[in-house]
């Protein structure tokens, strides 16, 4: 299997755009843009995000006992790019404020999910940060989506017929 085939296929998978942050005991903030954010478990409430083991932020997150996932909203593309850029102060713009447990958060994010670290799982060249959700906060804004190397926003299709949903026992989805 060619690596390019793998990356091309995965680029077709739409993902959320998040900025994952933490702060250490000395007050040093760390953060990176991630599309690999996903729900894992409802009981207990667990989520995951994958972090490149070669990333400059990896040591900070591997040592952290908590992290905050900021789910970006439409219009926050520049923030996504800034938190993916190397060799800059990603916090210099001052738009992240102390939020849940004092971690850097975006007041206008369409969701924030504050976690304690449940497990750190090594998986190839990435680490999987599994977080136990301690607090979750949402705002009524359309989320930003990343697909095919572009940012976009979801366009809802018509809701399926209620009778069909009922026949399929899909009343909650
Ligand atoms: C839309 C987007 C999604 C990304 N998703 C991830 C991700 O899920 N995991 C990850 O480790 N890096 C991801 N990155 C790359 C990181 O944000 C960052 O660029 C990388 O960790 C290199 O940063 P460094 O200079 O701190 O080493 C993504 C970048 C972009 C633009």
TrEMBL record:
Q: Which UniProt keywords apply?
A: Oxidoreductase
The residues covered by the Flavin reductase like domain are: 10-153
Per the record, the coiled-coil ranges are none
Which SMART domains is this protein grouped with? Flavin_Reduct
Query: Is Thylakoid there in the keyword field?
Result: no
Source domain of life: Bacteria
Entry-linked Pfam families = Flavin_Reduct
Q: This protein is called what? A: Flavin reductase like domain-containing protein
Organism name: Streptomyces cuspidosporus
